[in-house]
Amino acid sequence: MPKQAANNGAGKHKIGLALAGGGPLGGVYEIGALIALNEALEGVDFQDVDVLVGVSAGALVSALLANGISPQQMARVFIDPRPGDPRFSPLMFMQPAFGEYARRGLSVPWLLVKSTATYLRNPLRNGLLASFTQLTQAIPTAVFDNQPIERFLADLFSNRGCTDDFRKLKRELYVVAVDLDTGQAVKFGDPTANRIPISKAVQASTALPGLYPPVDIDGRSFVDGGLKRTLHASVALDAGVDLLFCINPIVPFDAQLAPETKDTRHKKLVEGGLPVVLSQTFRALIHSRMNVGMSKYDSQYQDAKVVLFEPDRHDSKMFFASVFSYANRANVCQHAYQTTRRDLRLRREELEPILNAHGIRVRDKILAQRNRHFSQALADSDEVKDMGLYKHRTTNALSAALDRLENWVGSAPRLARGRPRPGRS
Q1: What is the rounded CA–CA span in Å between residue 265 and residue 412?
Q2: Rounded distance between C-alpha atoms, residue 213 and residue 143, angstroms
Q3: Which one, of 314, 313, 310, lies nearest residue 260 by Cα?
Q4: Half-sphere exposure of 19 toward its Cβ, with a 13 Å CA cutoff?
Q5: Averages of pLDDT over each 10 residues, the chain, 425 residues
Q6: d(C-alpha 37, C-alpha 45), whole Å
Q7: DSSP assigned state of 260
Q8: 394: Cβ contacts below 8 Å, ≥ 6 apart
Q9: What is the DSSP secondary-structure string of 126-153?
Q10: Burial annotation 397-422 (CB, 10 A radius, 16+ → b, else e)
Q11: Which of 74, 195, 298, 315 is the most buried (most CB within 10 A)?
Q12: How many CB atoms lie within 10 A of CB 213?
């Protein structure tokens, strides 16, 4: 039975955040939405909530938040760097899986021998095509290598103030992936699975089949957590949160609600060809599963409130943008920022009682600025002005030297007590 959400003592509310998948573009959308929420809501900072749950792209954003990295800081690195800021290259996530290609290629001669032997043992019974289906084992499982994702995060979390260890975090973080051999979801960060480095868990949760290879962890193969559910909000609700914010960047497109346009794809999705048809099918499947889960939360978690933010069903900008595109990230971030701000204004009457009950207030002055750009939120953020987010190797080395110096200073009194005084033998 699911746990009922409960308060942590009188007046103390437990707040959570669940982020869905959606490819690189989905992650950018979530950053834009979080920037809007962070500046428009007083009484909550999303890098400091009690429970964080992430799936796929949402796992990466959640892991950064859990390490105290704000959405504004993420935007500086991933979307809108200033002169002199560290620049993130999306190419690290699009490196061909040469190791996977080589391993599968080397298996071809042996598989060919096995297939030929199978056919020759009984040509009539086995058949040519059936005998040689074993060659499909030589097909690579992925196009790109996801190891750079793990290395990027491991390097980032090696900075002072960050950690790659679930057990050392100040808040609860759950990264969801799916065990390929059992089809079961696994919650990394749970007491039974918190020894795995956060960076490795995120690599597993973002391993979308066909795009990235399954990730081996303790002899088991893991793939994208979105295969079971797109949001996994129940993980946070089971952790006892009273108020859960959810962000889902992927929704099916409703062509009947779309505004008039010369692009026939907006009215007849079939005109967009196979990619558009597959995109709509994928979105409809995962969104329907999410809706089924959300409909049960009111009865299963009667003491908890769930607030969902997602694009409009007629949002053609999000639907026709490739979820794996990175070139349009600034526009997507701004679109998410404005969509979320508009959602807060339109749902003000519904949301305000829920937010107020948890000590959260809406900043009217911020929402009143209809044409506000997310870059203004970055400029207004004191954290960003001196963010120190992604230090270079030289700075990391300096940090390590400072740690050693602190340890030495701490041991100095003991050394002094044991050192002979001058003039004594």
Answers
A1: 72
A2: 8
A3: 314
A4: 35
A5: 42 88 89 96 94 96 95 88 67 78 86 84 79 81 88 90 95 96 95 96 94 94 88 93 95 74 64 81 80 82 94 81 72 94 95 95 93 91 51 44 48 47 43
A6: 9
A7: P
A8: none
A9: H-HHHHGGGGGGGS-SBSB--HHHHHHH
A10: eeeeeeeeeeeeeeeeeeeeeeeeee
A11: 74
A12: 22
Task: Give how far Cα 412 sits from Cα of 310, 405, 409, Å.
Answer: 56, 10, 5
Distance CA 206, CA 193 (A): 17
The three-state secondary structure class of 49 is coil
| Selection from 193, 183, 223, 101 nearest residue 215 by Cα | 223
For the record, the structure tokens of 38 come out as 């962070």
Query: In this structure, what token pair is assigned to residue 83?
Result: 């002169």
The rounded distance, in Å, linking the Cα atoms of 319 and 339 is 14
Q: Residue 3 in contact with residue 231, Cβ under 8 Å?
A: no
Tokens of 218: 């303790």
**Of 54, 205, 88, nearest in space to 156 by CA:** 88
Closest by CA to 189, choosing from 206, 171, 215, 209, is: 171
